[in-house]
Amino acid sequence: MSPSSIEQGDPASGRSGARGPRARRYDPDRRDRIIDACLDVIAEHGLAGTSHRRVAAAADVPLGSMTYHFSGMDELLREAFTRFADSVARKAERRMAAAEDLDDALAEFSRNIDEDVLATQRDLILTLELYTLAARRPEFRDITTTWMTRTRATLEPFVDPRTGQILDAMNEGLTIHRALHADPASEGLAADALARIARGADEH
Questions:
Q1: Three-state secondary structure readout of 134-198
Q2: Taking the alpha carbons of 40, 46, 48, 54 in that order, is the dihedral positive or negative?
Q3: Contact, 92 vs 114, CB < 8 A?
Q4: Is the pLDDT of residue 97 over 80?
Q5: Mean pLDDT of all residues in 113-138
Q6: Mean pLDDT rounded to a whole number for the chain
Q7: CA angle 154, 156, 158 (to 5 degrees)
Q8: What is the mean pLDDT of residues 27-34?
């Protein structure tokens, strides 16, 4: 029976179903809403403070929906962080698609760092929480690996693979630097760093 129609004994309904099937509110987006709510909870409370109960409350769904739609917290975290990483990677891909030469590529990559990756405190926190999770638990590193691979691929038409890896590493470093340093980053820092790295590569 589809979870989006009538569910007999569905834990999300809060009823056992012993009295026969009951119609419930048609909610085809419930699973997606839980995933988005999970990201909101992580951003507000951190991974350590993320629980089924908090996510269910943020998504405005019964607590039983959590175990109905996900096998456990690991599956939910994987879905949530995969969605987040994909959204950030797509922003970089859209920006870099407009680049026609190295100067364009460096300018667009700089804008991606300043305006997309480092745009909001929420995204900054989610990025660092994902880094921490992947550092502690190797089974989540495919998410960060795929994210970095996609980012580096946007640079491949303009620089050699090693330079692309360095540029992406600088991108990651600026994210951490912004999160940990009390003073805001200097204006134009990303653009300056990218230019120095890319131009320096031409000399080797």
A1: HHHCHHHHHHHHHHHHHHHHHHCCCCCHHHHHHHHHHHHHHHHHHHHCCCCCCCCHHHHHHHHHH
A2: negative
A3: no
A4: yes
A5: 90
A6: 85
A7: 100
A8: 90
